[in-house]
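cron nightly-structures :: item 1 of 1
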Amino acid sequence: MARRVARRTRQTNGPGLLFVLIALVVVAAAGAKYLGLYAPEQPTLAPYGVGTETGAVVSTREATGADEMSRGEPVTVLVYHSHTSENFSPSISHAKNGKGEILQVGAEFCQAISEKGIKAIHLKGTYDTPVYSEAFRKAGEAVAKALSESPGIAAVIDIHRDGLPKGKDPDYTTAKVADQRVGKILFVVGDVANPNRNSNTAFAETIKGHLDAMYPGVSRGIKVQHRNLNGGLHVNTLTAYLGDYHGNTLTEAKSAARILADTVAAVLLEEAREGMLVLPTTTP
């Protein structure tokens, strides 16, 4: 009988004490918010369905420890050329000193994207001479070093031109934008030694989708190649072929570079504004 009375007493007094505790918590939380001491939790976002690869997808705030956009810090991209010696017709196909016209195309891209408020780091090292087959390995080493020095880079872009056989229909690698001829853009994803293959592909698909919407007819699509294109170094790796040696001029490739810059800027700035910018959580 005594145990039953004691239990009933606890049941009668319990809610009163609980009410007081809840009231105290509510008052404390309200006071902290009023005094500016309360900060809502920042969500971890995974726009590309990644998160298990070498560069996990996180929000910009979580990756950097601060909101870069609110601090006025620019989004940054890294631009390079595994095949730095590439030229456009009528020049010889590859510059003997390793400094080809593709560097001018990269410079045009960097200039155009900087006009959109994005910082561009342009690597101009020579990687495909004297041994052409060593190009991607040597370029990968340079990119890894640059990423370790600037861990906040949002995307890594390797700019090439294609080298198709002669005789292709002129429209195969050329489009018209505002009555001007521009080189078409092909995106390539490597699936060898690439734990970021899925995110690389998703990033290319996102860029292509914006390109199709903004500049219909300029994209040549996305191709997956069985080779190592250094995609494992960053979740947002983009390998882009702008025009073709036989089918396009340097001027047409530069026009394509400005179009690609406009498209990449649109994607990255939109994601940065929404707090969904993808940054690697580890350096290569």
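cron nightly-structures :: done
The helical segments are 2-34, 60-64, 68-71, 102-114, 135-149, 197-214, 250-273.
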